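Listing 4. Sequential folding, example run.
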Amino acid sequence: MRTVIRLSLLTARGGIAGSTLVLPVVAFALTTTLLLVVLAGTLSFFRWQDEYSGLYQTLAAIAVALLVVPLLALGGSAARLSARRRDDKLSTLRLLGATPATVNAMTVLESSVLALGGAVIGVLGYLLLTPLVGLIHFRGEALGASALWLSPLLIVAVVLAVVLLAIVSAAIGLRRVNISPLGVRTRQNPPKVAVLRIIIGAVFLLGVYLAMSNIGAFGSVAAIALVMLLGFGGVIAMLNLMGPAILGMLAQRQWRRAQTPVKLLASRQILESPKAAWRQVSGVAMTSFMAVFCGVGLSIVGDAESSGASGQDAFLISDTRTGVIITLVISFIMVACSIGVNQASQILDRAEILVSLDRLGAPRQVIEAARSRAVMSPLRIVSLGSALIAAVLVFPLTALSVFMNPVTILLVLACLFGGILLVWLSLKATAPVMSKTLSSAERV
């Protein structure tokens, strides 16, 4: 164990090692904070025991399904931040004689330390945010901070879950390092596009659509809520499964038809790691998916308000709108965090290739344009595709007039535009990181 610790400390030294360590910590902290806030808000609804409590709890469960899976995906991607630099480092150690056990232990140690540090910071963020979240009104009164305090045991469980997620996510990438360290170090055998992922995802989506089309057959409200929870949460997980494969297939087509250096470099960047390319745009894909649900929800709320509801019914309508807005706000916070961290990490991961292109004479405008195209080109496809999938799944549960309602259309378009704008701003914000990397005297 002492050898593992010494090797980890030794290999952590480097020109930009500090940045590669800070980025995962930030991602884990944000993931933990949002997970705890969402969990606390959901559990606060279960303290109510009346005729309306079941409906509130069902709506909360749907919100959890729409938010927790993307948050876990963000935590998983945090473990893979700077993955290439770590894989290069570990493959070099394997070539120098390090055993697979040593490499595995180093990965577990590094991932655990970073995830634990980020999770602890995330707990502090949750403690700071709780009084503010407690000011939100439901059922005519503020929730109150006291209703949002989680038990210490549950907080520890969330922290341990984040650490475990980090270890598992990081360990998945070790197979190639242990089997073919030379191939990893020399960047041979790029990841293949797994068509099976698309087939599995398509079959699952069809199953969920059929379940939504016959939702009344499940009988009780609890059974229907469980089906919707598993169905919508599973679809979001399937999007993360299918996304890299779809981007890889599209990039292969663009690579064959590339007529300019920018298109060629952009398609090659996606093919180099479809999973990394998916992480750049997955946040917007998730938000586009949720935007359809939120738009439909606001449209239904608007129709209900026009009917002149009063008493608890009026509170329910108002609270549904509040829940929709909260879901959208959390999703956009998640998108902003995911995009910023992943963009900076992608530059640091590809520093060696970027510097090599610069030293070989490639104009920096071309390098920057290729980086932008590698993100913006798939972004348009996945954002529209995710919204379309959500619309197909929700359609059996509501009327066509709800989809054609201006509120639904405007909200979906606003979320699509907002997500694309966030990505574009992130590209501009990380341009100095690119310039600093290319201007570095160090041959990374």
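-- end of first protein; second protein begins --
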Amino acid sequence: MTIQRITIAGLGLIGGSLALALRKAGFDGELVGCDRAEVIATATERGVIDSGNIDPVTAAQGSNVVVLATPVGAIIDLIERLGPVVPASTLLTDVGSTKHEIAERAQQVFGSAAGARFLPSHPMAGAEHCGLEHANADLFRGAPWVFTLINGQPEQASHAAEWISLVEKLGAIPVFFDAVRHDRLIAWSSHLPQMVSTALASALEAEFGDDPAIRQICGRGLNDMTRLAASGYPMWRDIVATNSNNLRDALLKYEQQLSHLRENLRGPALREEFDAANRFRKNLKS
């Protein structure tokens, strides 16, 4: 294995889980973290990383792979900051939830060499809670890990094929899409569910506030539907901003679907909606 040193910029849920998963999968090289001083101290004390630095340029020095595991806006900033200073032999990759704007920025920074320098990716794993304290070594097990290649196959990038192999050892399932298709699919499959959960919880808050009755009568359905509403705004602000067109389209069509349901609460069309929903759910789990 030629990957002997990995830097993870951002030691939150995803970055911290990645470090733990790498260790569990048998990676015996050096793991370097980059985050706030107190996060680095905690991660080092817990054995999540070997060392860390608050400066991303310093943290990236000497690493074979640098993983950008910050919110999307910070990923874009880090590409601009690290791109000119890390050597061509270092693979930059990310775990951001949107890909098109990230890939565009990498192409602006690296030019024609973008395909050999940067590997955009998105592990389809997460939770409604964020932070290193929620990191889990098994977070990626059985989860798709999407790669949106730039200008060719991963073999063009130093360490890329080896990194994808490491991802498989974490228990993740590598899949490949172009960035534009990824962002449209993810708007519907991830970002829309988040907005629906947020809107539902917000509507309940506006309607019932501190009324204890809603909590007393709450069943599993409401708990399941509002689980994502516990997600933090700072991460989602960047996700929404970098996929707003796709998400706006998904929200509009969802609003139309809700209107159709409202207008057919006592009509035969309601059964058709349930039948269609049942088919989708069955196919999703097959």
